[in-house]
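Bug report

Summary: structure tokens for WxL domain-containing protein differ between web form and batch submission.
Environment: batch mode, default settings.
Steps: 1) Submit the sequence below via batch. 2) Compare with the web form result.

Sequence submitted:
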Amino acid sequence: MKKTNKLMMTGAVLVTLGHIVMAPSVQAATTSNETTTGKIALEAGDTTTTNPPIVPGTDGNGNGPTGATGDITIDNLTPLDFGKVKLTGGAQNVKNIVKDPNVQVTDKRGTGAGWNITVKSSEFKDTTDSTHILKGAQINFPVGKVVASDSTNTAAPTAKAITVPADGLDNAQILMSADKDKGVGTWADVMTTDGITLDIAGGAYAGSYNADLTWTLGDTPL
């Protein structure tokens, strides 16, 4: 019992002393700031590998991977199909039926030099009688949604709405262009399925018609 009382009394004394004795001041710990470095060397990308399409095909032919290699490439070109159409005798506007048509470009030069992609079209000729041509035909491309393979990449190229005459002449139109410091990385111009249309003039013959679209990638802006 004496030991217990002594502890209780000692505790009481400490409390009492706390009212009259100033607590010692606390000094801040001494700190030290040092600096280190981190470094990395970036080189132009591998020119022997291909770049997969950002937009997967949804109907079996929605993709047209080119298999191109290099430091700046056209990776994907969706083939167009305007389906089966009944002639009216007059001018007609026909919608593309291939889902999610898109054009994809990769620039891994690492220079920010910019680029452009153009398209031109041959004439639409009957596959069984080449003398039958769709006179006055033209393909209309809408302004698409430009998307990157990496959502954090915001230096987007510019997509444009264009009309491409299907006349076989050298009159290529610019579909997408990247100014200086734009379009670095992988980018796709994704258009709505029925946004691409074909204009046909009146007086066309019945038949199956094909045309070749030629796409050209330039390594500077236009």
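Above is the batch result. After comparison, the two runs are identical; trailing whitespace caused the diff. The helical segments are 2-18. The two ends are 99 Å apart (CA to CA).
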